[in-house]
Amino acid sequence: MKKVFPFLLIALIAISFTSCITTIQPLVTAKNAVTDNRLTGTWLRENTVYQITPLLQSSLVNKQNADSKNKGLTLTLSREDSLQYANMYLVSFNKYGLNYNMVAGLTRIGGQLYMDLLPLIANSEEPNVFGDPFQSTVDYLAGSTIAKVNVDDGSLKLHFLDGEVIKEQVQAGKMRLKHESNNLFGTFMITASTSEINSFLGKYGNDERIFTKNAVTLTRRS
Amino acid sequence: MNVNNPLFRFLQHLAFWVLSFVVFLQMFKLGARAERIDYVYTQLFHLTLLPAVYLNLKWLFPAYAKRNTWGLYALLLVVLILVFSWVNYQFFQSWSSFILPDYFFISYFSYSEICLFFIVYVALTSLIKLSKSWFTVNELERKLLQAESEKTQIELKALRSQVNPHFFFNTLNSIYSMALERDGRLPNTVLQLSDLMRYFLYESRGELVPLDKEVAVLQDYISLQKLRLADAVEIKLAIAGELANYKIAPLLLITFVENAFKHGARGNDPGAFVRLQLTAEGNELDFTLENNIGEVNEVESMPHRGVGLENVKRRLQLLYPGRHRLQANRVENNFVVRLNLQMQHV
Predict the structure, then answer these.
(1) Nearest CA among B65, B39, B42 for reference residue B125
(2) Which ipTM value was assigned to this complex?
(3) B299 phi and psi, to 5 degrees?
(4) Whole-structure pTM value
(5) B 96-135 → A contacts, CB under 8 A
(6) Which of A63, B45, B65, B183 is the residue whose CA sits 20 to 30 A from B139?
(7) What is the SS3 assignment for B251-265?
(8) Do A203 and B108 touch (CB under 8 A)?
(9) Beta partners for residue A89, in sequence order
(10) How many CA atoms lie within 13 A of B104 on its CB side?
């Protein structure tokens, strides 16, 4: 189960956000992070409830801080990290009995809002053979998923970068973006720098060819 | 192939840009091998480089740098680099999506980095142009020296050729006089003149002749004059030194002797004299010629008067620059020529 879990996590993400592509460098950093209060709340999509809260106010972080305190550990963050975390959100949802958490950052490029999603942690409500709730930290190479965001009071639409299109264009020699690929498993990852990704979206952010045709739409529940 | 051949110059430029393209492509490619978009990117990058480089080479540099208006040139160069760097940046950042909609790329260098590219290219191509100019200047200098040498040779030949007719003309005048007087020595005189002409026409064509040969010509000439003047002119010769050990430019000394008889010893002056003293020792020639000043020979027309002395002065300047000393002065009623020159030892 442990060995299967990372793949399951990837599969779930893939199911939720089809044709997405991961980048090794984040889109959002402490320097370009923005906030939008409209994101905070409870959202619904296909019977799955998504909770979006400011990261530092989330129960997960509060629990982590309490655990550290109980163990006598002091969690110290750098100023840059503090600034970054202060502007980030925690996206939590439950699927197939597993609690998923993702960290989301927002930035504005060319007037358009973009979201950077980073899988954080997933844990099970049922204990494992050792009696602990099963947890899977991110023991594989962390990658961000990027989406164009359109939010209003009632809905949150995410247009993810279309991994298949990007992969196809790169391999056809028509798109120049730093990348790495694994032909054995067919994996493809963007390794361009944060500034390069920002420049790329600044130029092609309005080009619908590089985004998935169908947006992932979440409806506000509260 | 001539370096100024348009085709050769075109090939040079082409080779430079091909090399630049190859180097850039290797720099720009992301993977192990260059993809199609890497070729496109490199080509487009060069399309913005070329105008800046050639505007500098064909307009700015010739118009301003060569006129020593360096300040203005530097200012215009800065403007050129900034403008085309901006064009390059904008092209990849914005315009390429309209021109090449099927390709996705951005400007992968910041504006300041692009400026650096342009500075390097403009500087490098300017230095190449300067180095080519250096070779061209060297070649021109070499050709100039060669042309000057050829000019000197031509001038020398002309000067020498001016001497021969001048003397020949005067000698014929003497023979004419002897013919009128039905002098019995005329046949021998003609033979002596023939020997002199052989020397003038053939033996004196070299750059240098043995000094003893040159002195022999002087003595033959003086003999011709003696035949005409008899005892009317006091002629004294004092020759000393190992003449055969030295070489001298041909027909230098004959002009002085010719002038001495032309302007002085005419025979109608009771005190007419020509005194010649020549010493060759230690690579130095000391030549002194003194004669009385008489009437100018009326046979010589006005344009030819004074030509002989000027000719030999010019020849001495060309053949013995800084190695001769000539004094030609009037002392009371006499004319004295003193020549000292460094000769070549055989």
Answers:
(1) B65
(2) 0.75
(3) -70, -30
(4) 0.61
(5) 97, 102-108
(6) B65
(7) CCHHHHHHHHHHHCC
(8) no
(9) A54, A104
(10) 28
